[in-house]
Every structure is written in C-alpha cells, then in structure tokens.
Amino acid sequence: MYSIEELIPIVNKAIDGHYNNRSPKRLYEPISYAMSAGGKRIRPILCLMACNVFSDDIYKALEPAIGLETFHNFTLLHDDIMDHADVRRNQPTVHKKWDENTAILSGDAMMIEAYEYFLNLPTEALRHSLKVFNQTAREVCEGQQFDMDFESISSVKIEDYLEMIRLKTAVLLAASLKIGSIIGGATSNDANLMYQFGIHMGMAFQLQDDYLDTFGDESTFGKKIGGDIVENKKTFLQISATEKNEQLMQELMQRTYKNNQEKISVITQTYRDLSIDKAAQNAILDEYKRAYEVLNSISVAENNQKELLKFLDQLKQRVF
Amino acid sequence: MYSIEELIPIVNKAIDGHYNNRSPKRLYEPISYAMSAGGKRIRPILCLMACNVFSDDIYKALEPAIGLETFHNFTLLHDDIMDHADVRRNQPTVHKKWDENTAILSGDAMMIEAYEYFLNLPTEALRHSLKVFNQTAREVCEGQQFDMDFESISSVKIEDYLEMIRLKTAVLLAASLKIGSIIGGATSNDANLMYQFGIHMGMAFQLQDDYLDTFGDESTFGKKIGGDIVENKKTFLQISATEKNEQLMQELMQRTYKNNQEKISVITQTYRDLSIDKAAQNAILDEYKRAYEVLNSISVAENNQKELLKFLDQLKQRVF
C-alpha cells in the first residue's frame, strides 16, 4: 500500500510544469500559480488511496486525481473573488496578483482542464467517473450559493448548515474516494460505501475547522484563532449557540467591544457556558464513528484499508 | 431533412423549464434567465443539422446540442462581467440584474450543466464528443484572453486577429457541426470536414459582424452602426486600415470630434478611401467560398446537405 508520504511527491510531480509554455500566458500563468501554491493535496491523495484499496496500479487514477485537485483549486480561485479574499496559503490571491477578469477567465479554463484529466479513462470508468464528478461539481456550486445565501439570513437552521457543508466540502472528498474506487475496480456497492465514508470524513473535517477556529491552537491550526467570531460568521458553533439562546447571541454579536480580542473572549466563554464546545466535539466524534463503521463494512482485506485509516486518524488528531 | 424552422422549436422546447424548481433559486434562476433570453440558437441548430446529414434520427444529438448552447450562453454570461456589459439581447445582463458574484457562480454552474448534457451519449460517441467539446471550450477561453490582451496592445497583426476570432467564435460553431456529425455516425474524415466547414463559416460570420458594424443597415443588423468605431475597437477593419496607414489611423482615433456621429463618418470614409470595405468583402467571400468547397467534398448525397447550404446562404445574405 502506498503511504501518504509516498503519494504526495507523485501528485506534485504530475502537477509541476503542466502549464509551462502555454499561450496565452495571461490565461495559463495564473493557473500554474494557483496549482503550485501548495495545499495539502487531500483530494488527489484520497483518490489514489481509494484506487489502491482495490488495485495495485494507482497510476491509472493519477490523471483523474489531478483533475479533482484542479477542480478544487478552481473553486478556491472563484470563491476568493466572491469572498473578496486577498490572501490564500500566505500568497496574494489570483484576483489580487493579477485582476478580477484574469481570475474569472483563468478559473473557467481551470474547470475545463479538470475535465480534460478524465478523458483518457477506459470506457467503463469514463462515464461512471464523469457522472460522479459532474454531479459533485454541481453540488459544490450549490453549496457555495447556500453559503452566500446564509450571509443575509438572520437565523440559519443547523440542518441547513450541515447540508451546506456537505455540499461545499464533503461531496468532493467523497467523490475523490468514489472515483478512485471505480477506477481501481471496486464493485458499485463498495464504491458507494467509499463515498459514504468520504461524506462522514468531510463533515468531520469541516466541523473540526469550525471548532478549531475558536478552540484550536494557533501554532497547529495555521490560522489566527477567533476569525469566525470577529466576522460574525455562521458556523456550527454560532448557529448552535443561537439555537440555544438567540437573544443572548444577537446581543453579543451586536455589542461594541474594546477590541477583537475582547469579542473573541466573551463569545468563546459564552460557547463554553452553553456547552457548545462539547456539542461540537460530539458531532465531530459521531461523524468519525460513522466513517469508521462504513469503512469496516467494505469488502476488502483489512490491510488494504490501513492507509485510509491512518489518514482518518491523522485528521482526528487535530482535535482529540 | 429538418429545416431551420422545424429545428428552432425543438431546441426551444428542450431548453424551456429545464431549471424550474431547482434549489438554490439564486443559483438556477439566473441560468434560466440567461438560457431563455433567446438568441438565434445557431450552435444547437448546426449540431442537429450536422447529425441530420448522416442520420434521420436527430433526437440522439438533442442533449449535446443543448449542452453546446448552454456552454455558449455561459461564455456570454462571464464575458459580460469581464466587458462590463450592461445589456444583452435588450435585457439587463445577469451581473446587472443580480450581482457579480451571482453571475460568476451561475456561470460556473452553467458550464457544469453543459457537460451534463453529454453524459448519456453512447459509449463510442461519448469520449470523442467530449474530447472535441473540451478542446473547444479551452480554445474559446484562449480566444477571450487574446481579445482582452489586444485591448492593451497598440498594433495587433491581422493574422493574430484572425486567430483570435477563430478561437473565440469559429471553433464552437465548428465543434457543434463536428459533434453532430459524430453522433450522426459520420466517418472520422467527414466529421473533420464538417469541422473545417464550420471554421470557414465561423470566420465569415465574425468578419461579417465587423463589416456590418460599420457598413451595415441598422434596421437589419439589429445594433447601432458605428459602435466599434466609437469604442476604437480592434476589428478586421481597424487593424487592416492601421496596417495600410498607421499614422493616419492613430491620428483619427485620437482626434477630438464634435460628436460620435462625426467620428463614425470620418473613419468610415477613411476605410472606404483605403479600400478596407472591399478588403473585408473579399475576406468574407473567400471564407464562404472555402466553406462551400469543403461542404462539397463531404461524401453524402447532395440532398442531405441542402439545409446546411440554405443556412450558409442566409448568413451570406446579411452582406451580399
């Protein structure tokens, strides 16, 4: 079985230099910049690992794996325009480094490139993988739209929030696993179980992000703690707290604070008082539990799953 | 053989209501709006006509035909953001009626929908059609980038301009014909000839647009005459005139005029003095001639091509 450490250089090698010397430069240089900015390469690695669960030959899933990473980076590029985000992975975003038109068009071209990576699959895998990919791509857009819609809705329900993060984050992780499985030769049932596994992993991952943004450790989380609170962002914590005590939360979000640090302390303490930290931990643990259960039900030798289990354990260790 | 008049309602029926009741509304209503705004449905009609050249069953090409129209409307939607265009087909553009974020994201979702329309093709046609479509989609983006690049280049060469309009306009018409041919069961050679036919038709069509914007008749052209001159737009006319007498054209474009009408008259007269109107007519006629030649070399009964010939004749009559 390939380990994460072995897969990362395989993925990076397939990405490096792919857009060199393509014309027009102004279209392809931003794509190259966005693709080489790093990131954890989670989606291609999941795709390759899933393939490896069912097959020794991971290389047959390499192009689609890069397609999934390309699509993911396309969504970041366009989301950054929509969110007016100036920095991504410690570098200026494409629309800041170049301009907005460049970011729109390079993003469009990136999405097209993502599809290109699927077109050499063997016939049986081609249609099946593309159907999964296309439905997922559509759902990711729907998730982004729901996320933007929530900004102007005063009270978002927790189930709507969970559906939004399923669409915006979990389905692409799940699709990466399912597509890798299909290419690896999994039965339809096993491919669907891998998808379910990915959904629970993705939900856990996003809920953790919400949790860590408030309760994490700056040195390991990699972002400033409390950003979501400062921005009054609708997260699992904020929505759960509002469901428990709407009046209090409204007052706390509208109150004038001496500075951001005071706002962060007051609201963080309120979350603790309302046991929202515990609720979040329970929700995350529940998703991990389901992920393990689904993975166990897949009909392959236990040894074949060990790298995926290790991956899940590493994710989980960010919180627990 | 199906006539244009028979094909238009078939296309419109396949488009109407497709996005009704889809959620989130804010994502799908702009798509529905953009798709139902009309337009001449040239691409799906060409796709169906090409299929009809090789097969009696045009319905097997209907979904991909709508996919091509969806892709075309996606490019208009994003181009309108980039060009800051407020009106399209006498209606406010999506980014004006809603906002820019909505236009970016709905456009993205439209591109994904375009691919969806290909995924039910029979296996042999699926990969082949998608490869043609994907290469074309990429080239359309490249064409748009070259077009934007030209705005900041003082002297564009005529061959670079022709390559730009090939990418931005001709390849999608050509691909529509090729994909319809593939689905209709054409040999690879005939499908490629249909593509070449489409390239010449597309070049003629775009060169006509340039010509008619200055020398056309407002009542039949549908747009105000002289818009390109007012905006100093780089067109076949402007670039050809600049190649003939750069100093004069620079002076005329920088001169201060009493009003737009004066600018239009002076520059139109200059084009006539430099015989640019004749040069454009010759370039257009040459493309039509090549289109007819290529069409004649396709190995099907003459009767099968008559609707395509009628289509070409109608296009040509806009000028001659």
Q: How large, in whole angstroms, is the Cα Rg of chain A?
A: 20 Å
Largest sheet, strands/sense/barrel of chain A: 2 strands, antiparallel
| DSSP summary: helix tally of chain A | 16
User: Mean pLDDT across all residues of chain A, rounded?
Assistant: 95
The residue fraction in helices of chain A comes out at: over 70%
What is the topology, as strand order, of the major beta sheet of chain A? 1-2
CATH topology of chain A: Farnesyl Diphosphate Synthase
Structural class of chain A: mainly alpha
Q: Approximately what portion of the residues of chain A adopt beta-strand conformation? A: under 5%
Low-pLDDT sequence parts of chain A? none
Biggest chain pair contact, residues each? A-B, 34 and 34 residues
Quaternary structure: homodimer
| H-E order of chain A | HHHHEEHHHHHHHHHHHH
- How many DSSP-defined strands of chain A? 2
Q: Estimate the global geometry of chain A from the Cα principal axes.
A: globular
Q: Briefly, what CATH class of chain A?
A: Mainly Alpha
Describe the protein's architecture and organization.
The structure is a homodimer of 320-residue chains. Chain A is built from 16 helices and two strands. Chain A has a two-stranded antiparallel sheet. In chain A, helix 9 packs antiparallel against helix 15. The longest helix of chain A has 29 residues. Chain A starts with a helix and ends with a helix.
